[in-house]
Specification:
This protein has one helix at residues 37-47; strands at 2-3, 8-9, 16-24, 29-34, 51-59, 65-66. With 67 residues, the protein is α+β, with helices and mostly antiparallel strands.
């Protein structure tokens, strides 16, 4: 899983960052978290069906992502 540099800390959740997650819901897969929507949408398009870009919070060192 890729985590881009330059993500802002989620001030409400210690150890989490805000960014654009590239996810697939079923089965769950967090492909990466990016600083910009454009980059995340491009990556989601490259991965194919079922993947989408959503803005949310990611717990570093895990595949946890909440949009």
């Amino acid at each position: 899983m890729f985590v881009a540099e330059g993500l802002k800390a989620d001030i409400d959740n210690d150890g989490w960052v805000k960014g654009w997650g590239v996810i697939r819901n079923a089965p769950w897969h967090l492909a990466g978290v990016y600083a910009t929507k454009d980059v995340a949408e491009t990556k989601a398009g490259m991965l194919g069906d079922g993947y989408e870009a959503r803005y949310g919070s990611h717990r570093l060192g895990s595949d946890d992502f909440i949009s």
